[in-house]
Write a structure and sequence with these properties.
The protein has a single domain, classed as 3-Layer(aba) Sandwich (Glutaredoxin). Helix content is 45%, strand content 16%. Strands 2-7-6-1-4-5-3 form a seven-stranded mixed beta sheet. Helix 2 packs across helix 7.
């Protein structure tokens, strides 16, 4: 029987807690590791499945990854998740959700761009997401570069430009950010596994250990 393991990776900072490593807040970076219990009674309340899907939606295990494209820890988390994908293959699905910091304007644009692409076609959003996280310098390259990549992906540019200005996309972005707040995610990165909030930078092996511990309950 398919079982969704509520594992949320938050690679954003919200109102307080550890800060993402970036040019504007690097001096405030701290390391924080903790495990605490929270309650997620109904995954549908948080739209945990409504993101960019990297893998099969029918996979045995699912990981939801909240990310800020300007956060270096987010890129490290992505690499750890990729390591797990390579090992678990079609048994693992990763759902990428957007949670840009207030002062990360580029990350906000990446998030808006990703949601606009997803509105056109999820495979396009998948390709864009994978491209950015496999080529971190492309994040700061800006929209002119992203448009060039979109052309390579054969995106409908006219529709993309309309979607980027659409209030619907803005509402979707606001909903993803508010969903992270509602879950109580406060550190970067953070993980929720079977109702447990885990903060601190975790390796692929550590993430796998939490997955296996949840599976054997």
């Amino acid at each position: 029987m398919y079982r969704f393991m509520s594992l949320v990776v938050s690679a954003s900072l919200l109102s307080f807690g550890a800060y993402a490593e970036c040019s504007s807040c690097k001096s405030d970076c701290i390391k924080s590791e903790s495990v605490s219990d929270i309650l997620i009674e109904d995954e549908t309340n948080y739209n945990l499945r409504d993101g960019v899907t990297l893998g099969s939606k029918e996979a045995e295990h699912s990981i939801v990854f909240y990310t800020d494209a300007e956060c270096s820890f987010c890129h490290k988390a992505y690499q750890n998740l990729q390591e797990l994908r390579e090992k678990w293959k079609d048994k693992l699905n990763i759902i990428v959700k957007q949670s840009p910091l207030n002062h990360h304007q580029v990350a906000k644009e990446v998030a808006r761009y990703t949601l606009a692409l997803k509105n056109q076609s999820e495979p396009l959003a998948v390709r864009f997401t994978e491209y950015l996280y496999e080529n971190p310098k492309a994040v700061k390259a800006g929209q002119d570069h992203w448009l060039e990549i979109a052309q390579e992906f054969q995106v409908d540019l006219a529709r993309l430009k309309l979607d980027l200005e659409s209030p619907i996309i803005e509402q979707k972005l606001a909903a993803e950010i508010e969903g992270a707040r509602t879950l109580g995610l406060r550190a970067t990165p953070s993980f929720i596994i079977d109702g447990k909030l885990i903060t601190g930078n975790r390796s692929a092996d550590e993430l796998e250990a939490y997955m296996l511990a949840d599976s054997t309950r």
